[in-house]
Amino acid sequence: MIDDLFDGVEFEESRSPSPFAPTLTRQKSKLEIKCELSVRKQTCNEAEDTHMVTRQPSRRPLARSTSSESVVSLGAEKKATPFPISIDSYRTEKRKSLRKQSDNKKVVRNESVQSVAPPRAATVKEKIGGMMEEIQQQQRVIQQASAALNCCYDAHHGKGSITELEAEKLLLIASEKRLALLAEVQALKSRSVTEPPQTVQPCLGNLTIRNLRLPLRTEYIFSMASKKDCGDIRSHYYFLLVRCGPTRILASHLASTHDSLSGDSLVFSDEFKLVDLESNFDITIEVYSVTHRSRADGVPNQEKSKRKLSGILHKSLTPRKLRSRSHMTMTHTSSPGGPNAIRISSFSLIGAVSINLNDVKSEKFTLQKVPFLSPISGHFACKIEADFQSNVEQRGFLTMFDDVGGLGAWHRRWCALIRGVLFSWTYPDDEKYKEALCKIDLTSCISERIRTVERIMCARPNTFELRTMRPRRHGDKDNLITQDTGSVITTKHWLAADTKDERIAWIESMNQALADVRAWDTNALKPLK
């Protein structure tokens, strides 16, 4: 009966659904309710596991889901929520990102392009190792030269030839180099370790020696001409040995009195260039000589006498004695010590002279240790040129103090310090096209060092001073920057930099240039205290 009453209601609802009609739903069964509750519980458990994994990923592994829907929902949640879940995790990630940025940050300083790191100085052990290798090389040269000289036992094997003299010269040079290296090795082993000085050191320089001439005695020249007319030629061979420092040795070519004379002097066409020298260098030039006799036809006297003696003996000997004589003459001994014996050179020292920076302008020197009967006159002539390698250059604006009508005035100038001379122009472009308005040569500087002017003397900051001296001229008077001291005029130069760093750079550059000029230029004035 109840079913009959509700049959009409279901028909009308399905036929004309109205929003205002009352909604009647069918009740769920117990099985459906259980299934729905289990699905909701499983979903809540998976969401809780995901939250714990996100908070502590290293402590608890990710729980595997048996439902495909939960896996899809988890992947979508990871892609859709890139932000940290809590404020603590946000702060942690922020600190990590800042730490990575600070680690990858590079600091670049505006260093000068011309600033090059100084080369590393070799240690004492490295120097000794290099010298020992050089000693072994010179020992091999000595052995080879001695072996070559041991083979020169007659005229047919080079006895008395120029080749033999060249071998004697090579033997002497190698022996001298070996002795110099051994002495330097012993000095390095016994030398104590010293720290490099902190003061300004002058730069290195170069030295060139050319036009070397060795004057001969007039008596020797006349006697040599008379012996040549008689058919007997007695020649003297010379060469020069230049010692610079403990191990640097240079040699000239062989010059003979027979074919290298120019007037009354023996001329050497060699040119010696010595680089990287200190200002307190000491160079020794040694003269070595050997005597050589020969006939005018080029055959040595020893060979002539041998031929004459062999002819006389050949006539007086019987055939049997002649065979034994010829057999005995076939065996020759190259040297009393055997073919591997070390020989001593036949060249001897006949004169020496020492040269330093003060002798650069001299062209004639007196030889020491010259034998009394030596063909040379005891003098030595050459031309020496010295040049220093000062690379100090500084450019920038400086404000220069000047006297204008008895009043002090400051003028801003573009200045350039080049090879010990300070040039000044009005503008930087004038350096290429115009002459300098003012030149200050550091060779005339009498200041011991260039220092900052005290504020009591000059109120302008970053001001430094240098004093120069020159001969007195007509019309010179005392003013704010010049002072008449009798025969000379002392000038006070005040230069002001723009900043403290520029002042320090200018003072260091000018002090270095001043040290270079005073060390290498003999015309530079000495400092006055």
UniProtKB/TrEMBL annotation:
**Which InterPro entries does the UniProt record give?**
AHD, Cytokinesis/Rho-signaling, PH-like_dom_sf, PH_Anillin, PH_domain
Q: Which SMART domains match?
A: PH
Residues covered by the PH domain:
391-515
State one Pfam family annotation. Anillin
Localization, UniProt? Cell projection, Bleb
Which UniProt key words apply to this protein? Answer: Coiled coil
According to UniProt, the name of this protein is Anillin
